[in-house]
Fold these 3 entries.
Entry 1:
Amino acid sequence: MKRTAGEIAQHVAGRLVGDPEKVLNGFSPLADSRSDTATFITSTKFRKHLSLTQASLVILKESDSAFCSVDHIIVNDPYYAYAKATELFIHETVNKQIHSTAVVDDSATVGEGSSIGAHSVIGANVVIGNDCSIASGVVLGDEVQIGKGSILNANVTIYYGCQIGERAIIHSGAVIGADGFGFANHQGEWVKIHQLGRVIIGNDVEIGANTTIDRGAIDDTIIDHGVKIDNQVQIGHNCHIGADTAIASSAAVAGSTIIGKNCAIAGLTGFFGHLEVADNVTLTAMSAVTQSIKEPGHYASGTPLQPYRKWQKNFTRFKQLDEMSRRIKSLEKELIDLKGE
Amino acid sequence: MKRTAGEIAQHVAGRLVGDPEKVLNGFSPLADSRSDTATFITSTKFRKHLSLTQASLVILKESDSAFCSVDHIIVNDPYYAYAKATELFIHETVNKQIHSTAVVDDSATVGEGSSIGAHSVIGANVVIGNDCSIASGVVLGDEVQIGKGSILNANVTIYYGCQIGERAIIHSGAVIGADGFGFANHQGEWVKIHQLGRVIIGNDVEIGANTTIDRGAIDDTIIDHGVKIDNQVQIGHNCHIGADTAIASSAAVAGSTIIGKNCAIAGLTGFFGHLEVADNVTLTAMSAVTQSIKEPGHYASGTPLQPYRKWQKNFTRFKQLDEMSRRIKSLEKELIDLKGE
Amino acid sequence: MKRTAGEIAQHVAGRLVGDPEKVLNGFSPLADSRSDTATFITSTKFRKHLSLTQASLVILKESDSAFCSVDHIIVNDPYYAYAKATELFIHETVNKQIHSTAVVDDSATVGEGSSIGAHSVIGANVVIGNDCSIASGVVLGDEVQIGKGSILNANVTIYYGCQIGERAIIHSGAVIGADGFGFANHQGEWVKIHQLGRVIIGNDVEIGANTTIDRGAIDDTIIDHGVKIDNQVQIGHNCHIGADTAIASSAAVAGSTIIGKNCAIAGLTGFFGHLEVADNVTLTAMSAVTQSIKEPGHYASGTPLQPYRKWQKNFTRFKQLDEMSRRIKSLEKELIDLKGE
């Protein structure tokens, strides 16, 4: 994939200082830049790399322009401009058809400009909007709806009745709408509660590889507009994830958790279920969300990594923490008594 | 899906107070109930919702009957009756055939009333019992056995030789029988130990989406009757999970762990391997099971969620825990000495 | 699968004491051995099991030979010999063809002796080396390269442009090359950073079921030779995993983490991103790698499992850890003052 500096400048609405015909074949990182690629600088603290850059084009702020001896594009927000520029370098499969091996139910509707890959299976009454790209090996259950411009990568599964908004990107192996984990215990045996809700996903949502989002037990599981979910995340039944919240890999959100808008949730974080989390909450990786979070802010839990032998000693002492606290209190009291004498 | 109050009352063996011809189109939650749906009340503490209910039918205990002004069904255990009633509202795909695109080895046996979805692949000598529903994109390795009445959702993979009991429900993306993680280190290189055991799964087991259960190294990995496993759980080689134990999402059970019956294991719990866990053990989410658990009961580990700045201070102090303990002891001794003077 | 004692002895280059025509139908564990199987003893501490063994053949060291009353094979390293011997008992599907339902792009190259299973989809310009085994339901994106002798199990997905080395084993549901989790926040909305790098995997790598390895944002994600990755592991974009490192199940490695050679990383471990880990580092299960690790050695984090009520008390005290430390210091000071009086 090759693009000219002029094309990039136009796409990011920046001002090009240099040759518009110069050809770039991708990006390289500023600290390890290569010729014939573009790069970008997001902070003045990286100016030492800028002065040494091997890149053929740099996206930068006005204030860095004087420190750059190669061709560059001046923008307000270089990181955003870089994100926009990556759109020009995407590999696109040319196929814009329904592959002959795809099994599409007669009652399904496939929008104009949409493609369906080999060996995909599209159920009864499915509605796929215009300009969607459904890759190979995808299985859509009956009555699934996919909004226009959405991309479903290979081997995605969507269960019966679930709805995906517009411009979704769903990565391979993701499973949307499997049963929530619900059973009634009857005389020592688990009786299945069939999960009658759906998963409803808003517009502009991205869902990572092998992520699972369960259908609701009675009502629906809801993922709002603009939510970004990384790989291997689990979202339990009847969760509601607020708009523009980002959830990093391997997090697990137990059922009926309500998460606000614009939250940033780091990897391997666990939500204990039936909790509410306010808008604008940031969670450090591996946090244990044991209770509702009512105020925006940055939260964390956990203990530090240590050499094993040192850790082992502290680890054991954790069992005595309550006792230690009471001994301190007792010491304080005795000392006061002693002073009083 | 529509059902009458009379059909529901009969199915849950309850006593209907009201119109048997009334039509219900599903369930709604008691606290947010809608007309033309059924709901249920499990505890007298929710009676305030009962008095305000918009639902057209309520499943309840005898003792709540007088507080309910709409049609209702009286049962002994409303939660169990609700679970049973959900069976009436399941969406079922009508297809009861082997799809023309399915690739079924000539040596495989498919029971009466069983269906196989599009693009599924059934290996040599596979035996599928009666009334099974194998969805699309499922791959069954050679010599796999599936008990009668089992449901395998789309894109499930089962490796060579594994056996699934009767009435199993396996969700999409689950992988049963991949190799356990076993290597011998020979002169700094890992030499693969081929995993010669199988996975043997009892009756009435449910396995969640993208869950993985590894085949045994020498002997088999065993999942007993009635076990319920949520999404994204990992079960290592040669584990034995006891009957009716429930494991919530994203838990990881290292190899050769023996877990007893009727355990309730919450999400993201980790088992460190080669441990034994007694029957009737409950584990809080994100527990680290670092050693065997010999007594039934409720166990937990981990630290509380805190605002980041406060957490950071306590986090750092964890490294001094052993030292703190020794300083307390020393203070106690000095104080005794001082008093003795 | 049946093998003679003579075949096994020859394969492991050991010295057989006993009948070379004796037939073995697999392995059994030393402590629970069965007739007509082979077993092995790795340490003199298991000699009590050796004297009682029901196995028909034992792989052992010279020093254990005198304590063994049944046929045996003498080797230097019984565990390694056992690993080698398992190669003789693998179930192999006979098919060595491209299945008629596989969709292979005309521009793809498939090496001699390689098989492709039913309903697999091979993209444009894909290159598959000789003697590869691609199972059913596998999807390879355009320009993927697979080295000779590699095994891809059912329902594996590999995205555009990724490269897999020789003799790889990739388990079902694994997704290689999905987009890394990268967005630029522009006026409160997440703008996708298209991920232009690839995943490059060395020789002799094994990747577990449902594991995900993301493509690089700009440069490539690199998995070196001999790396062994268990199930449900997540490797973020631009990570570099050093040669012969082993990563157990459900670990999550955030983006741009550099892990050295010969590391042993236990399950559910989390790496917080943009960290470096030295060679020869061992990490206990569920470790939180919050900072770079510069020295080889064994590290851990976390708190012990306890009965719930005891845990709850200590759990709460964790919030007071910093305060407790300061109170100890204050007590020490007061005591010194008191003594000085």
Entry 2:
Amino acid sequence: MPAAAARAQRQAAYPAVVVRLIDELARLPGIGRRSAERLAFHLLKVPPEDALSLSSAIADARQKVRPCRVCSNLADIGPDAEHTLCAVCADARRDRATIMVVEQPRDLIALEQTGMFRGVYHVLMGRVSPLEGVGPADLTTAELLARIDDPGANLGTAVKEVVLALNPTLEGDGTALFLAAELARRGVKLTRLARGLPAGSQLEYANKAVLADAIEGRRPI
Amino acid sequence: MPAAAARAQRQAAYPAVVVRLIDELARLPGIGRRSAERLAFHLLKVPPEDALSLSSAIADARQKVRPCRVCSNLADIGPDAEHTLCAVCADARRDRATIMVVEQPRDLIALEQTGMFRGVYHVLMGRVSPLEGVGPADLTTAELLARIDDPGANLGTAVKEVVLALNPTLEGDGTALFLAAELARRGVKLTRLARGLPAGSQLEYANKAVLADAIEGRRPI
């Protein structure tokens, strides 16, 4: 049954606000029409304060979170948008001369949890993906280059090293290649995260690409 | 890592409103922590009006939908709570002497889409499930019995037949058994939906319970 016909039939029986809720939920990624109905009925069944709490959490997050004006990481909104700084950029103890470039805020969190990096970040908010029509202009690449070209855009510190911490995937590698070309003529030291055998894994189960990386990147002990 | 520790670590890096949004989304059924994060980032990425539209759809549905005062089906809230009637109960052409008992509003919709039933419904809002601690008192059984005992509670019409349209599952059958016992001494005609081979299926793939139902319920042609 086509979606419009299904909607018309449902509309005949569900109250309009319920139809609207199902439609809105079905727009979320990974949530099909069936799951959207199940979630809608769940929200109609729980105590009203629970549903309203989710409702306000969504509105709050959308209204009070802004990209950090330096690195595009998620940040609580400051007194005004121009002063919004994320927790990392606001921390004066971080080494602002070293920028680690990640695809998304979740990657930043994962890296932060190691406690191994004392520099700052730059969040691209995606990766170059020709198939999905995402080009460099859709990412925060211009902001990254501005930080390197002008210390003023990097809270007053000149950038010495850029660490590419993109995913070891086709798209991540493509993005790294593009950034490497842009950064090469700016005379800044450029590194990327090491590739090889994941700690705790077994060599016999590693695939060819992992083994190839491990051989190519072998180090003296 | 225990949830509290995970939350503390995340809190160190995500803005508090984002943590709250992830926590709220993770409370939805079938949404794990990972999916909740993915949904939260989706909501932070879409145009603000899209996120606010979902937020208001949730609040609206919770505030403007009430159980129908007769059958407990979902209904748009009336001028006041006592006057809330669902679309089926409000329709004077329906045969109010025949009540079909279903577990949830979704079942009602599925049955309505056949266009085969001209009576009215009663939505139990669940089924008796000892394992989940759901007893008859947690359902709208009292309201159903009231409709049968007092025509005043059934919009002025005396009930002649009750059709049990519960799921053909262990819990649905248990609920039917309980209702049958309650209804037996009320002198109302009691029926249940037919069981047998699902239309369009193949006999060789039907399981034992389906075949047993089909044999037991065989009809002259």
Entry 3:
Amino acid sequence: MLIVALDPLQKEDVINWSKEVVYGVRNLVTGFKIGMPLLIKVGISGCKKIFCDYSGLLIADLKLADIGDIMASVVRDLSEAGVNTVIAHAFVGRSGALDKLVGECEKLDVKVVLVVSMSHRGSEEFIDKHLSDFMELALSLNVWGVVAPATRLSVVRRVRELGGSRIKVLSPGIGAQGAQPGTAICAGADYEIVGRAITASSNPTAEALKVLSEQGRKVKECLGSH
Amino acid sequence: MLIVALDPLQKEDVINWSKEVVYGVRNLVTGFKIGMPLLIKVGISGCKKIFCDYSGLLIADLKLADIGDIMASVVRDLSEAGVNTVIAHAFVGRSGALDKLVGECEKLDVKVVLVVSMSHRGSEEFIDKHLSDFMELALSLNVWGVVAPATRLSVVRRVRELGGSRIKVLSPGIGAQGAQPGTAICAGADYEIVGRAITASSNPTAEALKVLSEQGRKVKECLGSH
């Protein structure tokens, strides 16, 4: 299960570049993840153009971390542009923040994914200290999924352990950031997120096929070993 | 010292509405704060149009909370649009996150402001528990300022106490969110941030003058009482 992150932006003409990548791999992958660099460059209207005829998973990874009213307002705009999944930080807490976001997303039929750990070292300074509380919060808010970094597989394992089987685990960091395809899924993730390895390739379709094949081989291996 | 937050967006034509507010109050206030709802609606190019001839404090309040490379990339784009101050979350930590953001901002001559507490109740669930660590981090990163909510004056006082006199304290929540003009400055803030009370008014200029006058009266009062 593969999700393509449309970053880093490779060309000045972001809309046409994104369209090319999307058309190149849309039939191979489960969905796409877009971030703040893309969104502030092309805005909601540009985003509509890129994904106007795409109906798969479209994740806005703005790592929302604001008060509830602001997050709800952002999600209303994103939803208009076809976004059907948003990523927010567990850190902002429930009351007056995530409770409002989740409420708004239910109305809009938008899935919520919470960041419970990140791939950079600084994640250990504050965020990782609250991992089990964040997972408890994610479960009690009944969100669709959580993010845990493929670059630290022990965290992915722990997240799956704490989250049980119902919650989806999305794992970025495959490819250019160092993790091998399949390793996060073997550690308990549902989806692996790949950016640069595919988006910076001169042939995204071929590269996506390669990642999928590596992922498949690895997953077969680890399933075999159980 | 007053900063106007350009939210919530009041009209469909966001660029012209923003320009009207900016022209109406620019000579009265220290600066403007723009948020994610505005930025994703009009993009970097729209932002340039609104602020093309403004040279005061222009704060992008995206509450950045990502890995360092992504935050640095966003700041490069914002800086092109005339933004000279960015707000990021202290909780993402230093290593691989805020260290890179601060480094990039130094190159671009952009000021960094860290969120160390927020106005919603959920801020107490995780964020507020780290208030003194966040202030220590802000001081050691030598950032320009921090955000503390005018709706909780005890937090503003504590932030000033921990931060000493060098660091700027920006305090949102004045007006529609309930705090009276001048109260945050009396508690130790440098700037009060007002949104709706001014931006939703049919006469932003008159409203800004009213807020400034109330602020002045209140500050005079509290200075007198010391």
